[in-house]
Amino acid sequence: TAEIAASTRQVAEGVKSCASLLELARRVDVYAPIVEHVHAVVEGELAASDMLTRLISRDTKPERD
Question: What distance in Å separates the CA atoms of residue 44 and residue 26, rounded to the nearest whole number?
Fold first, then answer.
């Protein structure tokens, strides 16, 4: 995360909070695909272009039950 922040003069949205948000989502059993994918990009596990492809190609789900 420090590398991402140092590489830009702009605000890197979500870099500092995505790990905490992902942990919270998992703890309360909330499906949070955007948080999951941003976390994977921040951790270097996924390319940003792949994140976009995966998010727009996933099956849609109702917003609530």
Answer: 20
The residue range of the domain holding 6 is: 2-57
Residue 64 in domain: no
Could you tell me if 58 and 33 are in contact, meaning their C-beta atoms sit under 8 angstroms apart? yes
Strands annotated E in 2-46: none
- The predicted model scores a pTM of 0.71
Domain contains 63? no
pLDDT tens digit sequence for 31-65: 899 999 999 998 899 998 999 999 999 888 787 76
Q: What is the dihedral of CA 31, 37, 38, 42, to 10 degrees?
A: 130
